[in-house]
Amino acid sequence: MTLHFKLLIVEDEMIIAEDMAESLRRMGYEVPVVVPSGEMAIAKAAEIQPDLVLMDINLQGDMDGIETAALIRAKFQIPVIFLTAYADVPTLERAKQAEPFGYLLKPFEERELQTTIEIAIKRNQAEATMRVSLKKEQELTELKSRFMTMAAHDFRTPLTTIQTSTELLQNYGHKWPEEKKHLHYNRIKNAITMMTKLLDDVLFVGKEEAGKLEFNPQPLDLQSFCGEIIEEIQQSDRDSHPILFEFSGDCQTATMDEQLLRQILTNLLSNAMKYSPPGSPVRFQLQCQDQQARFQIQDSGIGISAEDQQRLFEPFYRAKNVGNISGTGLGLAIVKKCTEVHHGTLIVHSEIGTGTTFTVVLPLVSEDESPRF
């Protein structure tokens, strides 16, 4: 019977080590190697990533078993059981500092060895599960905190606009010319649009987190579709950014999820214009070849630092240099997920003060392998 647990034995008395390895193999454990020194143990732990290390305290070389165990635990989070013929108090006190998962005094019985290993492996599995749960809890807490911060700011701004314009229309609208009244009506309309987009983004992320994001690839003419997206984006662009669209290849016979692709392109184009100087062009290239569609959107905006690029696709995260430019920090997280659902790739290249280029590569024909993600 194979237990699918890999053990590393660190023992400088090779007859004892090989005898132990043979016993463990009979029990069903995998023992790929036996090493006699701390230095070799660290190298092998990195190479084979064992589930457990059985470590003699007295070893050949410059490092004893206690030093070696402490390093293995710190670098690889691999549990260690100490094997030793010594039970003196100073040795035991030193051994505690390495946080071992067990301590066996030589000579020991096979049953004692097996029980100690089983307990150590189960304890390590429980601790690993606890670490994952704790990490998820921390991520959720941070996500909630970011959401509350975002909601407090990004809802307040359009609500203030709606309230102010409504009060002004109520109090002075009967005195104003139609042009001035339309100005405030448009402000209210834009504020509602902003809040609707915010809620849509939050709901999209919520669906994805809950595993309820639908994927429905359909035949799509990418050239025409991109033209429609550009027209929609430019209608809401107040700063007159020309979008310079170029395409090449046969882009009329794709199969993709139209709604998810709309999320990708709308968010990338909107960001390119939002973070660029008024009037500066945004370059949009579509290239279809080798069964792939390559969408590239380039701006000459504020750019993104290397540090911020590491967290750029986390929900609610925003780069440190955005200043007073409004945004939720959800757009790029949505772009990343929509790209992954299409089994595509997303690449960002950016320099502070120079601009940013996003490249999305998707299969020209996406198959509906699973309806939900």
UniProtKB/TrEMBL annotation:
EC number: 2.7.13.3
Entry's localization field: Cell membrane
Residues carrying 4-aspartylphosphate: D56
Domain (Response regulatory): residue spans on this chain: 6-121
Originating species: Planktothricoides sp. SpSt-374
Record carries keyword Ribosomal protein: no
CDD domains noted in UniProt: HATPase, HisKA, REC_DC-like
Record-given protein name: histidine kinase
The UniProt record lists the keyword Iron: no
Record GO cellular component, one term: plasma membrane
Catalysed reaction, written as an equation: ATP + protein L-histidine = ADP + protein N-phospho-L-histidine
Protein keywords: ATP-binding, Cell membrane, Kinase, Membrane, Nucleotide-binding, Phosphoprotein, Transferase, Two-component regulatory system
Domain Histidine kinase: 150-366
InterPro entries: CheY-like_superfamily, HATPase_C_sf, HATPase_dom, His_kinase_dom, HisK_dim/P_dom, HisK_dim/P_sf, Sig_transdc_His_kin-like_C, Sig_transdc_resp-reg_receiver
UniProt-recorded Gene Ontology molecular function terms: ATP binding; phosphorelay sensor kinase activity
A Pfam family matched in the record: HisKA
